[in-house]
Structure formats: structure tokens, C-alpha cells
UniProtKB/TrEMBL annotation:
Keyword annotations of the record: Hydrolase, Metal-binding, Zinc
Molecular function per GO: hydrolase activity; metal ion binding
Co-factor requirement: Zn(2+)
Protein name: M20/M25/M40 family metallo-hydrolase
Pfam families: M20_dimer, Peptidase_M20
Keyword Zinc attributed: yes
Sequence ranges assigned to domain Peptidase M20 dimerisation in this UniProt record: 191-316
């Protein structure tokens, strides 16, 4: 692993304290922060104590006392701020399904537990980077912020939204520590997709199941509507800003080994439509008079949401008994290729792996989307495994070390990239 862009004292600190990094991870995973309910007060108190160094200023911000957020700040040489962001809550788990302790178990080079890869392992690496700079007395080239937040997994308001709405949190760039590696392929996520969530309701007329011809089957009407949505709106090529072309090209290259080139091209060039919930009917021998469906539509960043909504409504207009009763949406976001934080993050990743680093779009979206829409250049970048949200989730000691080294190099690379841009 290349540590040439790390200050010498920081590199030595990270090398000498690798065991501490693994212990940090196990400690964080040992706190049960399943969301819901998403209680993070205990883990925040531990981080607050752990980061109690004279060089670091640590502040807690909260609206919900059970879900506080923590910001640790280390002043730098330049009047610019680079933020490392990680969430402390996790998705739920069923302990009986696990063969390892979901609250942390070390086995060889693996550390098991809910949140190890999403994303307490990255948080542990960020905390150790903060301590490596602080304890060694090394002034970073830019001011560093470490924002550890609650309430990400359910998209609640107690986490990042609280920071944005109640504080002056406004870094010049941000790195979110989501795992962006898959099956030996490595990447920095520079974009996400928008979503439109529809609730469709179908009405019909009830009849006995033995005489369906005298009724109107609401479920049939609903599935016909979804079929039309897929065949018409789902086959319309998206109008995407040309600045996304390079990102889409690298995204296709990244996902092609799993899904194939054609399917991956379609993922970004056309809407994806998923029927997530279908409800209707009261008895097998009755023609249902009503039915309801919830549909998840995803759109590549740079697509005009208004145009997409208009296309959806046009597609469903005139269908008997079909009504859109609820609709919500988010817009996709992206950070252009060539921007300082994108190039610095890719170079930081190259310090710890020899393979190509793809600059690609995520298929979903999380806190990075929120930050970009607030005008904060943001990428997702982290090493881990593909076990996020799964049974026996784990990370590896190698991934933890890679995170720590690449995150520690990022301030130097980011400031250099900014200097070149100027």
C-alpha cells in the first residue's frame, strides 16, 4: 500500500495502531443501533470520549435526544473544509438467522456484525484518521470535519437533516463512507438516481368468482395499468445531460460483469419500474372491487423530474378505474468527472489497490444525494464487502486498513487537486 501522500507522522501512527482500528470496529458494532428505533445516544457518547483530544473540537447536535449527531473538527492550513461523513444507525437483524454474533465477532481476518460494512467499519477508520492527525500533532492541509450522524437507514430527519437545518454545517466537499467495492472491483460513487414512488388505486365492481364476466376485476385493471406503464413509459429513452455520459460509461463497465452490458445500459438509459406492493381482494371466490399498488420508478441523474411525471400521467390517463392517489419523488444528483473531490478520491483509492477505480453512479441514493442538493460536492467511497443488510454481514481487516490509509491521504490529494484547478 502506497503511503507516499500521507504525512510521515500520520502514516506511522496508522501503522502502529492497526489493532486499535480493529478494536474500534468491534466496539462500534457492539452498540445496538438498529433503525427502527435507531437509538444512537450510547454510541455517540463513546465516540465523544474516544475523540477527546486537545487538537480536536467535538460538538454534539440533536433534535431528538435519542438520536444525536457528532462533529469533530481539526483545523487545517487552508481555509477550506473536507468532511468525512458516516452514519451510526443500521438496518434491523434477526439474531436467530445469524451464525455469528450480530453485535460483533472476530473470526480470523473477518469482523462480523450488523453494520460492519454499512458502515461502522468506515466510521472506525475515520475516527482513527482523526486521532492519527491529532495525536501526531500534524496540521492537515485543509480543515477536517468528521460528521457522525443518526437516522440514515430510514431517511429520517434526526440525522443529516438536523445538521443542515439547525447548524452552519457547510463543508467545501464531503466523502460519505459507504462501501463502493463489489466482487474485486473498486469505485468511487459520484452520482445517484432519482426516484418516483407512485401509489395507484384501481376500482372495479364486485361479483361472484364463478361469474367474473359480470364484474370488473380491480386487480386485473391494476396489473394492466402497470403493464402499460412498463411497456410505454418504461421504454422511453431518458433525456440525460451530456455531462453524465462519462459517468454512465464507467457505471456500465463496473456493473457489466454482474448484469451484462445490455441490461446495465438499460438501467441508466431507461426508467426502471418495480412493483413493490400489490394489495387487493378479500376472498378467492369474489371478483375484487378495489386494489392498490405501490410502484418504485428510478431515473438517472440529470433527468427532468417534471418531464418524467408528465410522461407517467400521460401513460395512465384514460385507463378505466385507475387513479394515482399519492406520488413522491427525489431528484438524482451527480458530481462531475474532473471535480476536485472526485479525482482526489479516485487517487486515494489507487494508493491501496492496483485495479482500475471506476467513477460511477449508484443505483439508489442516500445522504450523498442530500448533500449534493445542498450544493456540497460529495462522493461515496469506502472498502468493505457485499454483505450490507444481509445475514452474517462482515468486513475484513484489509478493508479497514485500506479505508484508513486512503482517508488519511485524501486531505493532501484534495488540496493538491484544488490547487491544480485554481
Amino acid at each position: 500500500m502506497d503511503t507516499s501522500d500521507l504525512p510521515t507522522a500520520v502514516a506511522e501512527s496508522l501503522s502502529a495502531n492497526r489493532t486499535e482500528l480493529f478494536e474500534f470496529t468491534e466496539e462500534l458494532v457492539g452498540y445496538d443501533t438498529q433503525n427502527p428505533p435507531g437509538r444512537t445516544v450510547d454510541i455517540v457518547e463513546w465516540l465523544e470520549t474516544t475523540l477527546d483530544e486537545s487538537a480536536l473540537s467535538v460538538e454534539r447536535f440533536e433534535v431528538d435526544p435519542e438520536k444525536p449527531n457528532l462533529i469533530a473538527t481539526l483545523p487545517g492550513q487552508a481555509d477550506h473544509t473536507l468532511c468525512f461523513n458516516g452514519h451510526l444507525d443500521t438496518v434491523p437483524f434477526e439474531e436467530r438467522d445469524w451464525s455469528h454474533d450480530p453485535l460483533g465477532e472476530r473470526s480470523g481476518e473477518r469482523i462480523y456484525g450488523r453494520g460492519t460494512t454499512d458502515m461502522k467499519g468506515a466510521v472506525a477508520a475515520m475516527a482513527q484518521v482523526a486521532l492519527a492527525y491529532a495525536r501526531s500533532g500534524t496540521e492537515p492541509p485543509v480543515t477536517l470535519q468528521f460528521a457522525f450522524v443518526s437516522d440514515e437507514e430510514t431517511g429520517g430527519d434526526a440525522g443529516l437533516t438536523t445538521l443542515l437545518e439547525t447548524t452552519d454545517f457547510d463543508p467545501d466537499a464531503c466523502v460519505v463512507g459507504e462501501t463502493t467495492s463489489r466482487n474485486g472491483r473498486y469505485s468511487v460513487s459520484v452520482a445517484d438516481r432519482g426516484n418516483i414512488w407512485l401509489t395507484l388505486e384501481a376500482s372495479g365492481s364486485a361479483a361472484h368468482g364463478s361469474r367474473p364476466m359480470i364484474g370488473e376485476n380491480a386487480i386485473d385493471r391494476l396489473t394492466d395499468a402497470i403493464g402499460q406503464l412498463r411497456s410505454e413509459f418504461g421504454q422511453r429513452e431518458l433525456s440525460i445531460d451530456a455531462s453524465m455520459d462519462g459517468i454512465i460509461e464507467e457505471s456500465v463497465d463496473f456493473y457489466e460483469p454482474e448484469a451484462g452490458a445490455e441490461a446495465t445500459q438499460s438501467l441508466y438509459r431507461y426508467p426502471t419500474i418495480n412493483l413493490g406492493i400489490l394489495e387487493g381482494g378479500k376472498a378467492i371466490n369474489t371478483v375484487p372491487a378495489s386494489a392498490c399498488a405501490r410502484v418504485d420508478i428510478r431515473l438517472t441523474a440529470g433527468v427532468d423530474t417534471r418531464e418524467a411525471l408528465s410522461g407517467i400521467r400521460d401513460c395512465l390517463t384514460g385507463m378505466d378505474g385507475i387513479e394515482i392517489i399519492d406520488i413522491s419523488w427525489t431528484r438524482g444528483s451527480y458530481e462531475p468527472l474532473g471535480s476536485s473531490i472526485v479525482e482526489a478520491s479516485a487517487k486515494a483509492a489507487e494508493h491501496v489497490v492496483d485495479e482500475q477505480i471506476y467513477r460511477r453512479s449508484a443505483t439508489g441514493g442516500g445522504d450523498a444525494k442530500v448533500l449534493r442538493h445542498e450544493g456540497i460536492p460529495t462522493v461515496e467511497f469506502g472498502f468493505g464487502t457485499q454483505t450490507a443488510h444481509g445475514t452474517d454481514e462482515y468486513t475484513t481487516t484489509e478493508a479497514l486498513v485500506r479505508n484508513a490509509i486512503s482517508y488519511a491521504a485524501l486531505p493532501v490529494l484534495y488540496e493538491h487537486s484544488r490547487s491544480v484547478d485554481r
